[in-house]
UniProtKB/TrEMBL annotation:
This is DUF4352 domain-containing protein. SUPFAM superfamilies: beta-sandwich domain of Sec23/24. Keywords: Membrane, Signal, Transmembrane, Transmembrane helix. It comes from the Bacteria. Pfam families: DUF4352 (PF11611). It comes from Pseudonocardia halophobica. Residues 1-12, 20-38, 146-166 have a biased composition (Low complexity).
């Protein structure tokens, strides 16, 4: 093989040796210059202690709302006589739930603080009304209308003869109509008459059928007239009914008409109202409206023949 001499002014270019098999040489790899250390490739890792943001928990408004609902129901029921006793436990529960709801709202666990406070207010008001009802009924039962040392008198329908020759002794205290279970000292008279205890005159009209739609009842209109010098009490619970079968019944509140209230009567005052009883016997016979006295043995007895 012959080679051509290089031309003047040109540098010979080195030629890479050719593979005897006709393949191209491997491409050149780039290496870092000497004196610089190689840095190995590192895989990036995410931190594992990053804070986790949880969604906020819903407000706990259930107890505050329940306290308001119970307090409102208790307040409405507390104005209804007799039925209003249901308001007493409701108002206590509503007060407790409202207090817990207010505490939760103060801690930021609830958002209905105003509703919880309203539940406390309605529950407290209902509780006070229930206490007033209890005091009124207790006063009606415990109040003394007469003392054991004072004598009782009954108005008589006929006058005694004043003649010295024909003067008859006064009749016994229990004079008047007879009825089963009559006691010594009972002041018995026909319905429509008046019995007086220590200046308080009580009148009971003959029994009549009540207009209740719930049950068959018998009603009488009673009247009080305070002729004494001190305050006297009156109540629907002052009366009982003895039917022909001998059963003694307490008043019912479903008799209809204008029911007798409970309260105090000043000297010279008057009040009247209806007192009704369930007619369990539903038969003809002698019915007796009794007006018992808690502190002495005398009873007023108003008889009605049906």
């Amino acid at each position: 093989m012959t080679t051509q001499p290089p031309s003047y002014g040109q540098h010979p270019q080195p030629h890479p040796p050719q593979s005897p098999y006709g393949q191209q040489p491997y491409p050149h790899q780039h290496y870092p210059p000497a004196g610089y250390p190689q840095v190995p490739h590192q895989r990036l890792q995410h931190p594992t202690n990053a804070p986790v943001h949880l969604p906020p928990s819903p407000p706990k408004n259930g107890l505050g709302t329940a306290g308001f609902v119970l307090g409102l129901i208790a307040l409405v029921l507390s104005f209804i006589p007799i039925i209003g006793v249901i308001a007493l436990p409701l108002s206590i529960i509503g007060l407790i739930l409202g207090s817990v709801g207010t505490h939760r709202a103060s801690k930021g666990e609830a958002t209905n603080k105003g509703l919880a406070i309203a539940g406390i207010a309605t529950s407290v008001l209902a509780l006070l009304i229930c206490m007033l009802w209890a005091a009124a009924f207790g006063n009606a039962v415990d109040d003394t209308r007469t003392s054991a040392s004072n004598s009782t008198s009954a108005s008589q329908s006929s006058a005694l003869s004043d003649s010295a020759e024909t003067a008859a002794p006064a009749g016994p205290v229990n004079a008047g109509p007879t009825f089963p279970g009559k006691k010594d000292g009972d002041i018995a008279l026909a319905a429509g008459g008046t019995v007086t205890f220590d200046g308080l005159a009580v009148t009971s009209t003959p029994l009549r059928a009540g207009d209740s739609t719930f049950e068959k009842t018998l009603c009488t209109t009673v009247s009080y007239a305070n002729g004494g010098t001190s305050t006297a009490s009156f109540s629907v619970f002052d009366f009982e009914l003895q039917d022909p079968a001998g059963a003694i019944l307490s008043p019912t509140f479903f008799g209809g008409g204008k029911g007798l209230d409970t309260g105090e009567l000043a000297p010279g005052g008057k009040v009247s109202g209806d007192v009704c009883f369930e007619d369990k016997a539903r038969t003809n016979g002698v019915y007796v409206v009794l007006e018992p006295n808690m502190f002495v043995s005398e009873r007023g007895a108003f008889t009605t023949q049906r």
